[in-house]
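Input record, target 12 of the design panel.
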């Protein structure tokens, strides 16, 4: 039995030895051809020419970056291709992350400008309709002044260095000669500054003398020039030009700086897109991404901490932009909040018609005083005989007792209807400045720390792995044990992966310009620090395009406050009050609309409260059913 068993045992032993030998040969064969996966990755990632990758591992390769013991699937030419590939891929990844932020800035810059131009066009048409309907004698000559006013304001909003106050005062300077000859002295011909009857008689008596006519026209032109140049001294429009200039300067100034800020944010982003990676950074990236390929490990991923160290070292100069960028983001938030809230551009432009109308009413009311002042400053009209001078006081006295020429005040219901229609147009779904601001701020929150979290964003996803093993730059490890440094140039002194030798001069210059822009913006719009946060605008408002989107910051007084709205100065945005002249023609009460209609009485709050309670009960019953 034993003799019969031994041959079988020997045969089994031989079979086992043969199998082990065959397995060893297969392993050697696999090792001999393990560069196949490296060639595939080299080709798929478009790193370089495929002929640079060896078929089999090459021993004793003189590598500069991916040094290790034993044969390698890399060559010096492959290292050069890897360096080019990591610079290309890293730059593309940075651009892909900054693209959305640049699109946010450029897209909303266009959206804000569209909203601004819409509001300007609406306000211009609103003022033109006032002149055509209420002051037809002024409209034909005053409309060019209106067009010039709003075209200059449009240029200012687009970033031009144009004074809003000077533009507004220039508008009233040009308006004064027309108002003086058409409203204050309606019988006076605009060309000569003399009464039309006197002008006709004078022209008939001097028809034989062309030189007399030329002198008369020259005198009228000089008188119109005198009216324009002395308008601010004569003050025929009371406090309304100054109030209008102040409101527009503050609101349009915030809008102008918002447009400039949206454009200024593109420079640091463009600088990051064209970042020049240092030699130490490129070598660190090659070690992190491709040195594992030299050992045939094409699927292993870098450790998270290792990736952060490498990219924080590469982007150390970029991280220095983080403090001014955070301040810049805060200014953007304040400016976007200001143009739709405390320094509402909508309310400021909506108030242009009101200011002009009240200025014209003021001039009519104080017509006798204005006429006497003009006669003293600019002299008597050239077409008026000197013998009429003693009668000037009598005419002035009689005019003072006569009521001023003013449009018939509309009823309260008409005012409600016009104001509701006006707000419906202003809060169009596609042109609501508030909706644009709110959308912009919602997206802006995600990018306040863009430059500090850029390394984390580049290390997310497929670039790193959270498995039990990862690549540490020199070997496969269970976890990365080196210290993970922070952001910025100062923290890179302890970076074990990338040596940061000096800051980037270009990025340092970009940082200084951004800091300077922040400081200049803060100085130009000092009201920003006084503004409340965006959250105070509230989130429970009506939908866009609704005529009920009206709250206290829109200039709408809260309902049910029990105060007489006609007994106080009209309060505009940011708590500014428009001073009304103590003597003035009776005008309809200022009616403010909330929800399409309101009752300006002390009982309005009780009715609103009862209606709200009834609607709540009906809503609960509907929910239960």
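The sequence produced for target 12 reads:
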């Amino acid at each position: 039995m034993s003799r019969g068993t031994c041959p079988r045992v020997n045969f089994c032993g031989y079979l086992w030895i043969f199998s082990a030998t065959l397995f060893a040969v297969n392993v050697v064969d696999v090792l001999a051809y393990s560069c196949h996966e490296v060639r595939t990755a080299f080709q798929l990632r478009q790193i370089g020419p495929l002929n640079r990758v060896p078929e089999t591992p090459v021993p004793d390769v003189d590598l500069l970056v991916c040094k290790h013991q034993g044969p390698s699937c890399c060559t010096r030419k492959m290292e050069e291709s890897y360096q080019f590939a990591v610079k290309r891929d890293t730059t593309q990844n940075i651009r892909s992350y900054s693209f959305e932020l640049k699109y946010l800035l450029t897209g909303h810059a266009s959206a804000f400008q569209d909203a601004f131009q819409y509001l300007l066009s609406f306000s211009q048409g609103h003022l033109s309709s006032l002149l055509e309907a209420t002051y037809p004698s002024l409209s034909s000559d005053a409309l060019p002044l209106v067009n010039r006013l709003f075209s200059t304001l449009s240029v200012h909003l687009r970033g031009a260095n144009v004074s809003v106050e000077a533009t507004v005062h220039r508008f009233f300077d040009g308006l004064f000669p027309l108002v003086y000859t058409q409203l204050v002295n309606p019988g006076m011909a605009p060309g000569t500054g003399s009464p039309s009857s006197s002008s006709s008689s004078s022209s008939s008596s001097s028809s034989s003398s062309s030189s007399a006519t030329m002198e008369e026209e020259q005198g009228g032109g000089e008188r119109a020039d005198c009216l324009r140049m002395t308008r601010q001294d004569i003050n025929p429009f009371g406090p309304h030009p100054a109030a209008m200039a102040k409101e527009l300067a503050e609101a349009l100034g915030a809008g102008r700086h918002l447009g400039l800020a949206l454009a200024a944010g593109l420079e640091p982003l463009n600088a990051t897109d064209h970042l020049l990676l240092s030699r130490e950074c490129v070598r660190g990236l090659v070690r992190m991404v491709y040195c594992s390929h030299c050992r045939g490990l094409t699927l292993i991923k870098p450790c998270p901490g290792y990736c952060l160290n490498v990219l924080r070292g590469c982007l150390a100069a970029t991280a220095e932009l983080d403090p001014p960028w955070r301040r810049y983001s805060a200014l953007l938030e304040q400016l976007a909040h200001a143009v739709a809230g405390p320094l509402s551009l909508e309310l400021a432009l909506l108030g242009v018609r009101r200011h002009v109308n009240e200025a014209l009413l003021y001039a009519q009311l104080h017509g006798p005083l204005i006429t006497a002042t003009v006669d003293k400053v600019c002299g008597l009209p050239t077409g008026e005989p000197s013998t009429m001078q003693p009668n000037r006081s009598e005419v002035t006295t009689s005019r003072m007792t006569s009521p001023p020429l003013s449009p018939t005040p509309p009823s309260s219901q008409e005012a409600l209807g016009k104001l509701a229609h006006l707000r419906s147009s202003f809060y169009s779904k596609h042109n609501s400045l508030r909706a644009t601001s709110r959308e912009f701020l919602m997206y802006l929150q995600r990018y306040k720390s863009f430059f500090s979290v850029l390394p984390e964003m580049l290390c997310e996803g497929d670039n790193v792995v959270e498995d039990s093993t990862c690549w540490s730059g020199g070997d496969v490890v269970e976890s990365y044990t080196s210290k993970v440094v922070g952001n910025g140039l100062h923290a890179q002194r302890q970076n074990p992966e990338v040596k940061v030798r000096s800051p980037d001069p270009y990025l340092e210059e970009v940082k200084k310009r951004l800091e300077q822009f922040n400081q200049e913006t803060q100085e130009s719009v000092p009201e920003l620090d006084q503004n409340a946060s965006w959250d105070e605008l509230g989130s429970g408002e009506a939908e866009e395009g609704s005529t009920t989107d009206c709250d206290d910051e829109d200039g709408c007084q809260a309902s049910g406050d029990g105060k007489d709205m006609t007994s106080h100065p009209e309060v505009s945005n940011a708590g500014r009050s428009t001073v009304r002249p103590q003597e003035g023609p009776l005008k309809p009460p200022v009616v403010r609309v909330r929800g399409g209609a309101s009752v300006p009485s002390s009982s309005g709050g009780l009715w609103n409260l009862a209606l709200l309670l009834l609607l709540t009960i009906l809503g609960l019953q509907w929910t239960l059913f």
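The chain has 22 helices and four strands.
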